[in-house]
Amino acid sequence: MNSLNGKVAIVGAADTEVGVVPHMGATQLCVDAALRALDDAGINKEQVDGLITCNSMAEPYMYHAEAIAEYMQIFPRYCLGVGTGGGTTFSVLHHAASAIATGVCDTVLITMADSLHSGLSKEQAMAMQASTGHQQFEIPYGPTVPAFYALAGQAHMAEYGTTPEQFAAIAVACRKHANLNPAAQKREIITVEDVLNSRMIADPLHLLDCSLISDGGSAVVLTSAERAADFKSPPVYLLGVGEGHSHEHISQARNLTTSAAAESGQRAYDMAGVGPSDIDVAQIYDCFTPTVLIELEDLGFCEKGEGGAFVENGNVELGGSLPVNTHGGLLSHCHPGNPGSMFALTEAVAQLRHQAGGRQVKDANISLVHGQGGILSSHTTLILGRDKH
Amino acid sequence: MADHSGKNFPTPTKETAPYWEGCRNHQLVIQQCPKCEYYQFYPRMMCTHCSHGYMDWVTVSGNGRVISFTVIRRPISPAYKAEAPYVVALIKLDEGPTMMSNIVECEPEKVFIGMKVNVVFEDWSEDISIPKFVPQK
Ligand SMILES: [Zn+2]
């Protein structure tokens, strides 16, 4: 069968300093991430023949990937800058893997960074927020980004009896993991009460149900499984990848409580030949806590409607049945916007290399990484393995 | 007319002009497929149900129910400050389509999923009136 399963490996992965990084611009962070990933892979820039980046809000370019290639003086034969992040980050990994498997190029560097915390003026930040949504049919009503996700959370509460305490349990788990991660932006332990006592942003979302605003960058190097042995670091194999795309605007969603993660997940499981019970550790996109809960259900880790019960008894914490967002996630590690999903990817690599230190999941062999973007709009699921299978 | 300056005004397009003209006349005018009778929102040049290439414009009841909502505590911009906290909701019209709007003339705490609502129009300028929803009496 013509499948990507086992054909491509991640041979380099690294993050920049993240959180509040005022001494570096977004372009510098993007290049810094690239240099660190190349170093991790043990190669020089001349060995890169494919480059993928995402555009930056703080320092945008019309041709972002070309701008980074020019900055680094590399001359790729495969080059793509994307305008969005979230699920798109893993969609481009899907593209890169396809390009490698079909011989379009040999070694792809994916590097993404932004400085949303330090690089944007307050006016730019407000303008960015106001630009999310349909210009005629949503934005006039004054919704904020948290409000769009709150609509999904509120619908889940009404349909399945999910509680604010259950959403809060996700934020608590991510913070617990971030506490074990020296790189994380927010590390002090929080409780469910702390989440519920934090300022209400858009019911049912409190401040601590919302992800961070950060600076930072992250990069990976991909090559074919055959070539992977020539690289310095142990390879992590792509076993499965699947996408699902259902809408752009939340007011056009087919369903508020079931996302296209159900489709992306099933496609990735089918390619990998594994199921939810085979996953040792998962990184699940966590821009807001309800996002995680809905995705856990759609990815088959529990039945639809039982996400609340699944997260409230420690299942998603280290030591639980499915540790989730072991680096701290967007909620506690960092969220620089478009590049956000990349940190989940580099964390999955660290876990599968057994190099995650105090937050290592014992004997982690298979990891699922799920990204989504828009407003539960665009979904891509990756399944990564320590072995090719 | 109340002062709505600084708000995020919609910019009608060729495709959506009949909808906004309906709003200006305080009527909710959406599309219905002449072939399969499917109602759709927002306006498009095709029927998303049967792919028919032409849609009729029809005035609908303006009745619907809230399928989800949230309360915005901190307004998106200073122009929305006067109405904060305000309710952003998704309303499923009796004819089928879903649209985003605000629930007005109702305490935010009184809004619930399943609540029956009907359309009212808020005049923002000579040209633009915005459909909003109030609890059905
Ligand atoms: Zn039709």
Automatic annotation (TrEMBL), chain A:
It comes from the Bacteria. InterPro entries: Thiolase, Thiolase-like, Thiolase_C_2, Thiolase_N. Residues 242-386 form the Thiolase C-terminal domain. The keyword Transferase applies. Keywords: Transferase. GO terms for molecular function: acyltransferase activity, transferring groups other than amino-acyl groups. Residues 8-225 form the Thiolase N-terminal domain. Pfam families: Thiolase_C_1, Thiolase_N. This is Acetyl-CoA acetyltransferase. It comes from Alteribacillus persepolensis.
UniProtKB/TrEMBL annotation, chain B:
It comes from the Bacteria. Gene3D superfamilies: 6.10.30.10. It comes from Alteribacillus persepolensis. InterPro entries: ChsH2_C (IPR002878), ChsH2_Znr (IPR022002), NA-bd_OB-fold (IPR012340), Thioester_dehydratase-like (IPR052513). Residues 57-122 form the ChsH2 C-terminal OB-fold domain. Residues 20-50 form the ChsH2 rubredoxin-like zinc ribbon domain. This is Zn-ribbon domain-containing OB-fold protein. SUPFAM superfamilies: Nucleic acid-binding proteins (SSF50249). Pfam families: OB_ChsH2_C, zf-ChsH2. The lineage of its organism: Bacteria, Bacillati, Bacillota, Bacilli, Bacillales. Transmembrane segments: none annotated.
